[in-house]
Amino acid sequence: MGEKYHEDQEEIHSKVLRAGRRTYFFDVRSTKAGDYYLTITESKKFTHDDGSFHYKKHKIYLYKEDFDAFKEHFTEMMDFIIAEKGTEVISDRHQKDYKKEDDIAPVDAADAEKAAATDSFTDVDFDDI
């Protein structure tokens, strides 16, 4: 079965999930033998400086014989993420005060002491005179 065959197949049932710049398409299609399979397509919109845009698409073909294992792994991964990070979205796109770890410089004890000393110009250390 070539890629062309998959693209030409009639969609039996479809759902669309819009999520910001991404759109997910869930499509049930039919094989040559008349059985069904699922395609999941992620489509992401990219806008160019001149205002034009294009879409990048990624597609997964999921057949019935893989449903149980796929569902098990998918659920396990989602449960892991929720257990580790909770349901709150943490990202620069969703939170205005988000700072990447790379943007935050490590502070050692000497730097912290200097920063504390410069917080108020009225704090004078006479040992330095």
Distance between the termini: 84 Å
Helix count equals: 3
Order of helices and strands: HEEEEHH
- CATH topology: the name is Nuclear Transport Factor 2, Chain: A
Structural class: alpha+beta
**What's the shape?**
flat
**Biggest β-sheet strands, sense, barrel:** 4 strands, antiparallel
Poorly predicted runs are: 118-122
- What is the topology, as strand order, of the major beta sheet? 1-2-3-4
Domain module tally = 1
Number of strands: 4
Proportion of helical residues? 25-40%
User: How large is the share of residues in beta strands?
Assistant: 25-35%
Question: Do you know the CATH architecture?
Answer: Roll
What's the level 1 CATH class? Answer: Alpha Beta
How would you state the average pLDDT, rounded? 79
Q: Rg to the nearest angstrom?
A: 26 Å
List keywords for this structure.
129 residues; alpha+beta; Nuclear Transport Factor 2, Chain: A; four-stranded antiparallel beta sheet; 3 helices; 4 strands; 27% helix
Overview of the molecule:
A 4-stranded antiparallel β-sheet has the order 1-2-3-4, with no helix packed on it. The protein has helices at 3-8, 67-85, 109-118; strands spanning 11-19, 22-30, 36-47, 53-63. It is flat, with a radius of gyration of 26 Å. The model is unreliable at 118-122 (pLDDT under 50). It is α+β, with helices and mostly antiparallel strands. It has one domain: Roll (Nuclear Transport Factor 2, Chain: A). A hairpin with a 5-residue loop joins strand 3 (36-47) and strand 4.
